[in-house]
Amino acid sequence: MDGRGSLRAMLGNIARPMAGMFLGTALVLSLSGVSQAGKITVYTSYEEDELAAFLDAMKNDVPDIDVDVLRLSTGDLRARMLAEASNPKHDVIWGWAATSMVDPRIVEMLEPYSPAGIDKVPERFRDKDGYWFATTGYMGAFCVNNPEMEKDNLAMPSSWQDLIKPEYEGKLVMPNPASSGTGYLHIASILQMMGEEEGWAYLDALDKNMDQYIKSGSKPCNAASAGENTIGISFALRAIKNIDEGYPITMVIPSEGAGHELEANALMKTSQNMEDAKKFLDWTVSKGAEAEYNKWKSIVTMQGREMPEKFTEAGLPDDISTVLFEVDYAWAAENRDRIIAEWQKRYEN
Amino acid sequence: MSVSTSTRHSRLPDSDRIFAFAMIAATGLLLVTFVLVPLWAILKNSFVTPDGIGLDNFVRYFTDSRFVTIVGNTFEVGISVTLTTMVLAYGFAYAIQRTCMPLRNVLRIVALLPIFSPSLVQALGLQFLLGRNGLVNRTFGTEIDIYGFWGIYIADVVYAFPHAFLILSTALAVADARLYESAESLGAGAWRIFRTVTLPGTRYGLASAGFVVFTIVITDFGNPVVIGGNYSVLAVEIYNQVSGQANFAMGAVIGVLLLLPAALAMIGEKWISRRHFASVTAQSVPLAPQPNRARDTAWLIYSLLVAAVILSLVAIVIYASFVRLWPYNLSFSLRHYEFDVQNGLQPLWTSIQVAILTAVISMIFVTGAAYANHAFPMRASRVLYFLAILPAAVPGMVLGLGYILAFNTPGQPIYWMYDTILIIAFCNVYHYHAQGFLLATTNIKQISSTFDEASATLGATKLKTVWRVTLPIIWPTVLAVGVFFFMRAMVTLSAVIFLISPSTQLAAVSVLYLDDRGALNQAAAFAVCIMATVVAFLVLAQIALRVAGIRGVSLVR
Lengths: 349, 557
Description:
A: alpha/beta; D-Maltodextrin-Binding Protein, domain 2; B: 557 residues; two-stranded antiparallel sheet
């Protein structure tokens, strides 16, 4: 073969796959707006690592549905879904804060659905009209930095009441309820637990010890883990993960009971692929899903779970219902504006 | 030197008039589509109240006592950061453009480092360095508390520095040596020359840079969220309302407030432009700095000090990405580079595609808008100017949500690009439009309109003038605009987070979520990958220029 021939052959070798790529891209672009059989879009707030594990299991159990997942934080996802309300892009909401799900503007977009096997989920974790159901959740806990405690020679707190002791002055950090749903949940559960009058008096005392109300809900435990603060008011799962990561912290579940948040699932009434969306939701209450939840979540609403070792080692009891404070979500949602306004008036002026 | 606009205008032949209108119309139409329409879609919420349309939301907000504190804080940060950044960046740009000190090319890149990574990474770096448990406090046993005003102040100065540097460096890049020669022959000292020649010559650049810095500081929420402690500013209030409480109406009220600086800047620009004389004309002799040992050494020391501050923030992030567990186990480890996020490094490739697309669009339409605004001084171009700088005052979150509300409707003319990387690229171009536009305008303003005059009297049409005369002079600016948008597109977060889809995930979003879930070292590692990509891209592009036989043109002016 002469030089020119081989050059042409080489160019051909390059050109063909390139042409294929262009055609392929054009095809993908032209199809992207159209719903496809076997393909659904899921919006979720599950964290990256647990999400990856759940999806692996799902692909194994239900190989014929192709699931596209978009993950955003709870607040950002809510803003996005409300903005997209005239033309929703997703078929399913999965693992998203129940306190946000009950927003009437969200419920309006949902289609009631009770998946096969929903009976495993106790009724108190489901919407009474069947719009949503929660399979997992997370509970409140304190992240306490051990080296910082030793440095100041402090005793480990064990309850909400301990946190207002004067020795913790300037040592605490918690999420700002105005910017963070998890922050609001802490405030709401304290007010429900103690009653409003006593609750606000307690929050006044807590405020004296607070170093900062951090703007992001995920930050307090991270700040305590990195030693930027001593005690972070946060969630159990964050503490467990950070202990696993190697940070020298202790998880404390307040003895009065821990507030908690449920992560709920729902079907969109605008879904173009109801059949597969329902198949997916069926999977979320299946044995296979439950097995994965058990490995990752502090609260699994299906009955008869077995707690993973890393959870019990971090200090979670086998039966978490003994430490959970039962939050009244409807009350929390209804009184939100009033409570946040009062909170800002007291602590942000 | 300057020609009054009316005489020039009346001399325009018909074909030029059409060209002028076409150019203003094209860039203007895009600005209306991608800035005004989405902005209106969200800001109209500010008038929606439970009792119908009205101003109740504004009244409610203005009568809240917190409001006074928050507006006060916002201005305190905005003004102090702007003053500091302008002084530091002017000195740095001066040292690079007007002295013969060594290391100028390296220092140029260092000055830009803060925009190579998402802004939350700087705040992370600042926390690693100056936090309670940071390097400084642990090494020296000090008890520096960075959270609050000072944290925001330092983080924002570093964040805004490259933006100011880019514009000021462009302003200082070209000057007429004859002015300096005559000043010297008249016996003016160095300080007097600086005051009477250099400063007035860069007046437009100074005003532009000041506007850009002030607006990005008051609209930035990444730094205050991470390092602001209990110090509240308006941009965080928007985040509170929209993301924290799903209250679009109150978020929109604050969004409207933040637009005021853009309106003020438009008035200011008219005033500055009226008194502006092009500093380079067809007869001018380019100023070439002469070596001066004492001066060059002094400026080198200054530049190295500034560079050291910037580098320390970047270096500590890189360092943290290679240790097992910051700050408790500092042994070397590569484990944070095994990314366990969904899709691994895939978002990085998507980000590069988006960034290239953003750069190409910006080179055409942003420099196009800057040129149209400058070359055709008519009433329409004043409107164009306002639209072009308006996005600086829009927080990313407001713009991103506006895009959803405006474009996510089947049948809408540009709905076809929704859910593709094209909409993300357009969002980037128009999110950072003001910065790119002012960068290009500053440069174009330094080049005299006498070029246009000369070629017009030779009988060439405007179109020919653009092609034969203007483009060959300003293409390095066009390139610099492209590079700026490439860099922004690689790291921006706040607007695009509402436009990404499952198949268009971006690298900066990965960093955000790694940081969110407490994987600080992994977030640092991913940010390092982004920085490395941007630097590699700049180096490759510079090599490509060399290979193409073009020398003496820097990608970054």
